[in-house]
Design a protein that fits this description.
CATH superfamily of chain B: Beta-grasp domain
Structural class of chain A: alpha/beta
Number of domains of chain A: 3
Strand content of chain B: 25-35%
Strand order of the largest sheet of chain B: 2-1-7-5-6
Radius of gyration of chain A: 22 Å
Number of strands of chain A: 21
Strand order of the largest sheet of chain A: 8-15-9-10-11
CATH topology of chain B: Ubiquitin-like (UB roll)
Largest sheet of chain B: 5 strands, mixed
Distance between the termini of chain B: 23 Å
Shape of chain A: globular
Distance between the termini of chain A: 28 Å
Bound molecules: flavin-adenine dinucleotide, FE2/S2 (inorganic) cluster
Number of domains of chain B: 1
Largest interface: A-B, 38 and 38 residues
CATH class of the largest domain in chain A: Alpha Beta
Oligomer: heterodimer
CATH superfamily of the largest domain in chain A: FAD/NAD(P)-binding domain
CATH architecture of chain B: Roll
Radius of gyration of chain B: 12 Å
Structural class of chain B: mainly beta
Chain lengths: ~425, ~80
């Protein structure tokens, strides 16, 4: 949105393509947004492939076979496909009643639904706090927020001086106090119990490496988990953009390694909604051949400091039992993954083919990173080809019948 | 708006997703997995995990968390 507005202000002809029915992405969903009237907004429109600066789009209700196909050729493209929650597996994480933190947030914000009456939020990162707040607002009782890290390191971080963001975090911390939601540091939900739905969780006190020190059990009817975010990189990888540390590499104008392709928001680094918008403004202006005066340095530093304070520590791997699912779609257990690595599955592709991990409907979006980390530990070697995790020829699901009837060239205006 | 869910008619507000409507009815799972027959409902809530699949107007494998209900929709769970 910010990129589209900036590009339109700079005089470019702008098309904003978004898979959602309403503007705003993950953060502003549920609160109506407006975009510059000069911007053409294609809502409910999924970009399923990108060839050079050509976008292949399907417009219509999600997963409907009756969507219409269009092709857009652009002089420049700004990618801002965002991120989804990362969740590390634990016994019982596949039970109904276990949600990602983002799911709980989205259901609260856009559907007004509380995922449970007695809820625990668990994971790491500042995002857990607004999730707890949203849950309380829709009537859930949040028994506590488990933060696996000590969660205060960033306060002392010399680079973290960003008054606006600090105030926002202080606001959430104050809000939790007011709502009487305890924040349990160095703890995590390490198992969910129940037969057909979650009825209780095991909460562990953690060592700094996330191995378990002590546990207790509490009754809940829902648990919301989030261990940071995984960027949605399919389109950027399809476009050939170089990656750096698992994100799209960009210069200070948002330009990627591919001429004409820019990137902004969470796919360039996790930084929250304000930073994403600022990056969008810079990249949008640059894509339109103009320049924004906005400086991103301070906000990026703060984001980096926050990320440093909320790492994913390898001790999560000790929470698993042999029966714990690693891949939810293909129902691959930890045991099966280990068996595959013992056959020397020395690469993401081989690992997939021998264990079937990541070959299900989500195409490894949920499990890819966890599975590669587990395999790397098991094989005592890092075989981490970040691009291989995100290489999906079709960026977003479309039906075979749609693929068959899809136009390959831009259509003339009638 | 009127929709049917597993053959039963329900009145829903515009803007509700299929998942939203099911959760409001107190249903937290509505499909079972292929191998182990385990129950599944919403997990990611944003169209990424494919746990929440339903049938809408006879078309299978529609993500309930992404699909907005429209008047007259017929939703089927497995
Ligand atoms: C569920 C969820 C809830 C969040 N809530 C908060 C919060 O409360 N506070 C906070 O600071 N941060 C929150 N975040 C983090 C959030 O991602 C960022 O703060 C901010 O929304 C990032 O903006 P963005 O533009 O990078 O990505 P997003 O806001 O994620 O926007 C990406 C957009 O791209 C669209 N898209 C992706 N792929 C395609 C495609 N192939 N074709 C067409 N459209 C596509 C998506 O539909 C989406 O609308 C949340 C993240 C998630 C996943
Ligand atoms: S809940 Fe994950 S795709 Fe719908």
């Amino acid at each position: 949105m910010a990129a589209a507005n900036a590009a339109a202000r700079a005089g470019a002809e702008v098309v904003l393509v978004d898979g959602e029915p309403t503007l705003g992405g993950q953060y502003y969903r549920g609160t109506p947004q407006r975009v510059d009237p000069a911007v053409e907004h294609l809502a409910e429109s999924a970009v399923w492939a990108m060839e050079g600066l050509r976008l292949h789009i399907r417009t219509g209700a999600a997963d409907s076979p009756h969507r219409t196909g269009t092709v857009v050729d652009a002089d420049a493209v700004v990618l801002a496909t965002g991120a989804h929650d990362r969740v590390v597996p634990f016994p019982g994480w596949d039970l109904p009643g276990v949600y990602t933190a983002g799911a709980a947030q989205t259901l609260a914000k856009s559907q007004g639904i509380a995922v449970g009456a007695r809820v625990v939020v668990s994971g790491t990162g500042p995002f857990l706090l607004p999730v707890a707040e949203s849950l309380v607002k829709v009537g859930a009782r949040v028994l506590g927020v488990c933060e696996a890290n000590s969660g205060t390191g960033w306060l002392r971080h010399p680079r973290a001086a960003n008054p606006g963001k600090m105030a926002e975090l202080a606001h959430y911390a104050g809000m939790l106090l007011k709502l009487r939601v305890p924040l349990w540091r160095k703890t995590a939900v390490v198992a969910a119990h129940g037969t057909d739905r979650v009825t209780a969780v095991t909460i562990a006190r953690l060592n700094p490496d996330w191995t378990i020190r002590a546990t207790r059990r509490i009754e809940v009817d829902a648990v919301c988990v989030g261990h940071g975010f995984t960027p949605r990189l399919e389109l950027a990888v399809a476009a050939g953009c170089a990656l750096k540390d698992g994100f799209v590499a960009v210069d200070e104008r948002g330009a990627t390694s591919v001429p004409g392709v820019y990137a902004a928001g969470e796919i360039t680094g996790i930084g929250g909604a304000d930073l994403a918008a600022a990056e969008g403004e810079v990249a949008g202006a640059a894509a339109a051949g103009s320049e924004s005066t906005k400086s991103l340095t301070g906000a990026r530093r703060f984001a980096a400091a926050l990320a440093d304070a909320h790492p994913i520590k390898p001790g999560w791997q000790t929470w698993l039992t042999p029966e714990t699912l690693v891949c939810r779609c293909e129902e691959v257990t930890y045991q099966a993954l280990c068996a595959a690595t013992d056959l020397d599955a020395a690469g993401v592709r081989t690992l997939k083919l021998t264990s079937r991990v990541g070959l299900g409907l989500c195409q490894g979006r949920m499990c890819g990173r966890n599975a590669t980390e587990l395999a790397a530990t098991r094989l005592d070697q890092a075989f981490f080809d970040e691009a291989a995790l995100h290489r999906r020829p079709i960026a977003t699901p479309i039906r075979l019948s749609e693929l068959a009837e899809t136009p390959l060239e831009p259509q003339e205006d009638p | 708006m009127k929709v049917t869910i597993d053959g039963v008619e329900h009145t829903v507000e515009p803007g509700q997703t299929v998942a939203g409507a099911l959760l409001r009815l107190g249903r937290i799972s509505w499909r079972t997995t292929r191998n182990a027959d385990r129950p599944r409902g919403v997990f990611c809530g944003i169209g990424v995990c494919f746990d929440c699949l339903v049938e809408v107007n006879g078309v299978p494998d529609v993500r309930a968390c992404q699909r907005l209900l429209v008047d007259g929709d017929a939703v089927g769970t497995s």
